[in-house]
Amino acid sequence: MKFNLLIIIMFGILYAIFSLKTAGVTPEQLAVKKCSKCHYSLDIIKGKQLTKLEWISVLDRMQKKGANLSNKEYKIILNYLLRGFSN
Length: 87
Ligand code: HEC
Fold this sequence. Notes:
This protein is mainly α.
């Protein structure tokens, strides 16, 4: 019984740490983190006004080069691009 309780508490702590980590990241910070692997800054994005289809095609191209986005990260970054850099 004590052992089970210990496991539950440990998962609780891990879960709390994990949620804190993901909740603290804004879409912009995520984009900087993922895209700055190859682009010095977000300047490559900031001058642009692309349509949704064009951004999707850019993101797909970056994925092929090795941007390595999970489904969730892809959606967050696409939304960020559409909100700020799309017409
Ligand atoms: C693995 C390296 C790599 C990563 C990571 C990467 N890129 Fe790129 N990106 C490139 C290269 C190389 C080019 C230039 C060649 C090209 O456009 O295909 C480029 C070009 C671009 C361009 C210019 C395209 C155009 O048509 O003008 C944009 C915009 C861009 N990247 C956005 C992003 C965004 C947003 C991210 C993050 C989600 C990202 N990139 C992550 C390598 C990368």
